Automatic annotation (TrEMBL):
PROSITE patterns listed in its UniProt record: EAL (PS50883), GGDEF (PS50887)
Keyword hit for Membrane: yes
Key word rRNA-binding present: no
Region (Disordered): 251-273
Alphabetized SUPFAM superfamilies for the sequence: EAL domain-like (SSF141868), Nucleotide cyclase (SSF55073)
Species: Thioclava electrotropha
TM stretches of this protein: 32-64
Pfam family, one: EAL
Protein name, as recorded: Bifunctional diguanylate cyclase/phosphodiesterase
Length: 539
């Protein structure tokens, strides 16, 4: 359906919403007020017969000019009565036609599923007819942002399907920009029933690339029927993948965008967890806090950075560590909210340290693997940097080992490169605990390698751990990268890592994770102790 058809259907929907229902008693209409003085004058000047005649005339005129309800059934064009758009059943046919055109012209195409965030809350504020009017206006705004050949259809509930025509320059970056443009258009306030409504939408999209070879088309009916059936099957699969991405975007938080190609980085269902039911309340109540673990330079002994680590002050179980918190977060599907809490705590710590006039180096912050599938992650980070007035180089994002095997995903690669362009530092975690190729290091482009705690344990007397750690440090120095040893248990291991040339260390040998107030006190004591330490050349 073109834009003209959409406008006609929207106009019919507007008339239907305006005149739907019973018009009410005829004598109580506002138009009847003009007959009241006439009836009174007729009674005074002529008599009751004249007043009755004028009254009957008023009733007849009111009945003949009453507003007639528009039938609520679907109009002749087969449009959805509430939004004026094509119904959901037409989405498969439109997508199938787009796929056939894409194969014939060897051009990429795609589809998007857009849904309102928290539609139940919006429906509680509006009458069902007013909610339909809101959906219609959303559909009009979506159509205004698309080309004439692109199609917007109604999907189930408060969701829409956008079907794109084939175009030679459609890629991942273009799809992300289109999603942002659509979200910006629908986020403008709406005035419904003299109330201002503001909404956000999540988006899931599926991109269909160029075909390896264009299919040969024949004129016989049997071949064409097979081609149509295959196109319908592919259209159903494409819309299903876009819908799956939309569901994952809805679970990630308001305004999230997800691609169907992010299936590789979507974490598997971890199953039930005993803490998943209460972890959401703990996040919102502030019971899950960020503790900070100092990192010490092996060259100077000074603080070279710190890492934000979650701790849960549980009422029954005491203080829970990240090994117990992260599985509960993943089971509850609260990875996005958890990352927001940790990011806010890390930025607040950097701001407090800057106000104190100190410099303890960048803050290291681990992200869950699923967060790297968010193409708007770099945009939100840039906004947080501006809000807290912090340079991007003050933040180190830790790429977990589980992320290494998923770098082939285009959305993940796009997000990682956008973060690097922003200026954030990158750390590759778990080095030494799994296979990492030189190509992986080239793709990630980290500034520091994190040596896993399995190698730092017993490194003071385990010669195999010493050789492996020395090889990692030597390779990192050859590539111009720093190294950080995790989980250093004691003074002997710390001394050996210094001898092997590791750049920095963290762990129980240095300090345990602590709140920001205790961290600042510990840092002051540590630097006071360093200043009092005799050095070569000092009397």
């Amino acid at each position: 359906m073109g834009n003209d058809g959409g406008k006609r259907a929207a106009r019919k929907s507007e008339l239907r919403a305006r005149y739907q229902g019973k018009p009410g008693p005829v004598l109580l209409r506002r138009e009847m007020i003009a007959f009241l003085p006439a009836c009174g004058l007729a009674l005074l000047w002529v008599g009751p017969e004249a007043m009755v005649l004028i009254g009957l005339t008023a009733i007849l005129v009111g009945w003949m000019t009453r507003p007639l309800p528009v039938p609520p059934e679907i109009d002749e064009e087969g449009c959805d009565p509430a939004t004026g758009l094509l119904p959901p059943s037409a989405a498969i046919a439109e997508m199938a036609a787009s796929l056939q055109d894409s194969q014939r012209r060897n051009r990429p195409t795609g589809c998007l599923i857009l849904g309102l965030d928290a539609p139940d809350q919006v429906l509680r504020r509006l009458h069902p007819k007013e909610f339909d009017l809101l959906l219609r206006r959303i559909g009009e705004r979506l159509q205004a942002q698309l080309r004439s050949g692109d199609v917007v259809t109604r999907w189930d509930g408060a969701r829409f399907a956008v079907l794109l025509r084939p175009t030679p320059r459609l890629g991942l970056e273009g799809m992300i920009q289109l999603c942002g443009r659509l979200q910006e258009a629908v986020s403008e306030p709406y005035v419904i029933a003299e109330q201002t409504q503001e909404i956000t939408m999540h988006i899931g999209f599926h991109l269909v690339g160029r075909s390896a070879a264009a299919p040969a088309y024949r004129d016989d009916a049997a071949t064409q029927a097979k081609a149509d059936a295959r196109a319908n099957t592919e259209a159903e699969a494409a819309l299903s993948r876009a819908e799956t991405a939309a569901i994952r975007a809805m679970q990630s938080g308001p305004g999230a965008i997800r691609s169907s190609r992010s299936d590789k980085i979507a974490t598997k269902d971890p199953g039930p967890h005993p803490l998943s039911a209460s972890v959401g309340e703990a996040l919102e109540a502030g019971h899950i806090k960020a503790f900070f673990l100092p990192q010490i330079s092996t060259d100077t002994g000074d603080i070279s950075g710190f890492q934000a680590i979650p701790r849960w002050l549980h009422a029954q179980r005491g203080i829970l560590t990240e090994s117990e918190i992260l599985p509960a977060i993943e089971a509850a599907g609260l990875g996005a909210r958890f990352s927001e809490v940790m990011l806010y705590a890390a930025f607040g710590a950097l701001r407090d340290i800057a106000r104190d006039g100190s410099d303890f180096g960048p803050a290291s912050l681990p992200f869950l693997p699923g967060q790297m599938g968010d193409p708007k992650l770099a945009e939100r980070l840039a906004w947080e940097f501006d809000r807290f007035e912090i340079a991007p180089t003050r933040l180190r994002l830790i790429v977990p080992q589980a992320m290494v095997a998923r770098l082939d995903d285009p959305v993940c690669s796009h997000t990682l490169h956008a973060i690097k362009r922003l200026g954030c530092l990158i750390e590759l975690a778990g080095f030494g605990s799994g296979p990492v190729s030189a190509e992986t290091i080239r793709q990630i482009g980290p500034q520091r390698l994190r040596i896993h705690r399995s190698l730092t344990a017993e490194i003071d007397h385990n010669t195999e751990h010493q050789r492996l750690t020395a090889a990692i440090v030597s390779m990192a120095e050859g590539l111009g990268l720093e190294t950080l040893a995790e989980g250093v248990p004691g003074i002997a291991e710390h001394a050996m890592l210094c001898q092997l040339g590791c750049s920095a260390v963290q762990g129980p040998a240095i300090a345990a994770p602590m709140p920001i107030s205790e961290f600042l006190e510990w840092a002051e004591r540590h630097r006071t102790k360093l200043d009092a330490t005799p050095q070569i050349g000092r009397r």
